Amino acid sequence: RTVEPLEYYRRFLKENCRPDGRELGEFRTTTVNIGKCSITTADGSALVKLGNTTVICGVKAELAAPAVDSANKGYIVPNVELPSLCAERFRSGPPGEEAQAASQFIADVIENSQMIVKEDLCIANGKLAWVLYCDIICLDYDGNLLDASVFALLAALKNVQLPLVTINEETGLSEVNLKQKNPVIIRKHPVATSFAIFDDTLLIVDPTAEEEDLATGTVTIVTDEEGRLCSVHKPGGSPLTGAKLQDCITRAITRHKEVKKLIDKVIKSITPK
């Protein structure tokens, strides 16, 4: 495994399994923890574990004036952090290339899937809107950061409760009613499914960090609950045939159902009866 890691992997892949005992299309054990037990100071939070990869997402809501060119829209600001504590490969300091690419990927997923329509975050046209700061921090890195990040973001946003805000017509000032809170309107539920490509032809789902390093490419498919394709993220590497891509999309649609079921089950368990 240390001297010839690729040959070591190929021996398993020939038998249609992986060194950790999983089949090629099998995800690692996935758990999600939503709400107060994650981050008490956030307006919404969630902790997702995908095998050994652990990601936490906290959402902080603030009030701000809308941009001049989009007076009826609020903002969603995602940020992915890969601190040096989560894996040896990451260094302290400003965000590295991988963290920046992940932040951009999350921003694209929010935009393309229309999970939150920015108009819904507007309180008073041209005057006041919500800004949702979504901080996604990797606590333990063992591959497949994107799937865990999208999952944590969705779960945290489903946990956000925003207070009722009105603008006093006489003073022009905003008034916040903390007793009356409403959930953020989530219109679509995007779920990411990542694959590693081995030797240009073989696809394995939910790669570990070691599998990502040995792979000749990776691809991430994002779908929503209607089976609609929201995004295909393929940063270089081996090309994929149309048939292989279709296989990935089919597996991603199945994975969506699994994740949605898990989120619904956890939310049901924490909702007051």
UniProtKB/TrEMBL annotation:
Where is this protein found?
A: Cytoplasm; Nucleus, Nucleolus
Name one process (GO BP) from the record: U1 snRNA 3'-end processing
Boundaries of each Exoribonuclease phosphorolytic domain copy? 26-163, 190-253
Q: Which GO terms describe its cellular component?
A: cytoplasmic exosome (RNase complex); nuclear exosome (RNase complex); nucleolus
**Record flagged with keyword Acetylation:** yes
Keywords annotated in UniProt: Acetylation, Cytoplasm, Exosome, Nucleus, RNA-binding, rRNA processing
Q: Which GO terms describe its molecular function?
A: mRNA 3'-UTR AU-rich region binding
- Which Pfam families has this protein been placed in? RNase_PH, RNase_PH_C
Report the sequence similarity comment from the record. Answer: Belongs to the RNase PH family.
* Name of the molecule in the record: Exosome complex component RRP43
Task: Say which species the protein is native to.
Answer: Sitta europaea (Eurasian nuthatch)
Q: Which gene encodes it?
A: Exosc8
